[in-house]
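Run folding on both entries below.
>entry_1
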Amino acid sequence: MLSNFRRPLPPLLLLLLALLVPAQRAAAQSQSYNSGASIPTYHPDWMRWVPDSTSLAALSLPGTHDTMANDTEWYVSGVERSWVLAQSVELRPQLDAGIRVLDIRARHVGDRFTMHHGAYYLRANFDDVLATAVQFLRERPSETLLMRIKQEHSEENSTRSFAATFDWYRNASAYSSFIWRQSYIPSLGEVRGKIVILDDFSNGQYGIPWSSLNLQDVWDASNPGSKWELVRNQLTASNGGAPNAMYVNFLSASSFFYYNPSDFAQSVNASTLNYLAAGNVQRTGVMMMDFPGAALIDTLVTRNSPYIPYTLPLRGGSGGAPTSSECPPGAVAVGVHGRAGQYIDRLGLVCRYVNSDGSLGSYHYASAQGGDGGSYFERTCFSGMVIVGFHGRSGAYVDGLGMHCARPATWNIGYGVDSSPWLAGGNGGASFSDLCRNGSMVTRLRLRTWSLVDQMQPLCARLQ
């Protein structure tokens, strides 16, 4: 959006902007918009539920516009930042949340690539991008990443072409085996564990030609309403278009002096989520977003398979360190174990494997996370029931907790805690009650813990 700028904004223009345009809103949150330092959803391996034979063109792929534009130099003013920054979250948390398409804008400086948004350096280099992507794919080999590469701003002190420098990166031993080298749209099975290049700099010599894709990228729309019309029209096209054609739909825009990227994102993201939730679209194609919220990512990811896990709301505070308690593949949660007093001190899942006839088999105790206070507890649902949600109380911590249990054959909700709905913990905080969608059950807990369970977020899934 700032590709026409060749230097930081002059002071007089900054003053005018400060008078006319409010700075980007701090830490605003909604289901469709997120400007916090993390995204409260978790889809690190959602592609493993998608068949190998599926074309990338057939998928609904969440992506981020100006992926690395979550930070810039310290001296850049707040007003400038509101026009430069398009994301609030670093690359790895984006990938863990489910983002699979990256928009990488590289300035060619000294025969290397630095990450830029127009004239503004984003405090990252291409090695940072590739190292993060490769580490993610090492840990999650079921996934693939699509990476649009575009030359940004002016060249400086380079002795070779932009394409030659990209080829140098591509052939580096640390990255070479992770970069797919064809120019056609592949099936997912062909590129699991790989980076697929969307080549926007050499007309397809180094990947899928960007110009061959069906694009909607009007970045200078006059207002959010007009941009939403363009997004909606492209959704209609992608939903009914040729199955082997890849559609790319940018939700991002800015209107200089009037609407910054955050203004557009808050409006267009919300309209998009509402439209998708109404069941108007099955295949969205690639959706490139600024400041995407958890529910918007969720609704894109889960379009690709009914078996992809999804998250329930976060409960608790932001303290502690991230961890998890997970049922192994083929098992579901039927109870919990841990320690509790006035709060939930430690928490883990009790799981059972599902037999081929659908009955519940042997037990598995997933590791409990947290501190050593309180007293030990262990509770399971009634025989034949599984956990389909939780209820309890939370504030800065998870104060108290109970289970929602159901029998898979009927999905009638009941409580499986010795005829009492309460599991353990105290009475502080505010009450909550969260349920998986009909037909799915809890398989994993995302947690933040230290001496207590600071935060919990269940993941729900259907069994294949």
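>entry_2
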Amino acid sequence: MRRVLPAIGAAYDRYLFASCSPGTCVVLRIVFGIAMTVYALVWWADGEFWFSDAGVMQAETARQITGGRQWSPLFSIPASPALVRGCLAVMSVNAVLMTAGVFSRWQAAMLFFWMVSFQHRNPLILDGEDTVFRLFAFYLMWMPMDARLSLWRALRGAPAVPLRATQPLAWPIRLMQLQMCFLYLSAAWSKWQGAAWRDGSALFYVIQMGDLFGRGWWPASVLESEALIRTGTWSVVVVEAALPLLLLLPRTRKAGVFLGIALHLMMEYSMHLFLFQWVMIIGLLSFLDFDRWVFVPAADRSCDGGQPVAGRPEPPRDSGRTRPSPDQPLTAG
């Protein structure tokens, strides 16, 4: 036990603080900011209808629906159409600034605040997509997102931050990864509780929902084939159940990301689900190591310059060791 517990602790520390990809945090900031801008602008277009006291739901009604357990500043101040539109306009600006890399952590915190405020103001129009956006904003506000491709750093003439210096700060990316695994596991388990998913007929009922299905064209021979419908139904459950394991294991991680993206693109082609598929794809990108693909060559040439990061000892040059990445298996040593 004297060796096992320190080994477990060392592996845990390495998993959180020595194997995350800071470059991935930068990519997540950009793609999430773009999606969040679209999300906020769609809300802004009909904001007074959904969230103001002149719309479909009074603040007191929303408070009763939530049982008084949820908070929103729109419960305490008169939610006039002008105020709602102004708040949603600020939310849109926060999303744009986050995309550009201007105080991104603060922008993510503001986006989280706005989503909590508006989602609690009218919970009847929400679905799982809104919850995922809110959770991702919370995780992102702890990540070092402005190390690269930051407009604010460029305007100040500040050099890019060496990624190795921000690696210990990138640990919140693990929260997003674990959230994705729990989402897929929960989705597979929930589906398996339904008889239509177990007998393979669930997609037949989905196909009949004209307001949801039919975005892309499918031949009638596919939509009317019982064998294909049952195979497709069971395939969705199998893929969602397998994705957590595929994404957690380093050797199968890229295959898991590819399989997950393929699943969501097929759903995006077939169904009207607004941004749900895209926010899930953003979550899948958190499993990829963009340091090695995009940022490390530039960092080695222009930032690190072969010098040790300030505050850290330089590793032995003949040790043959390289920086661990999420695609390498975790070891205790």
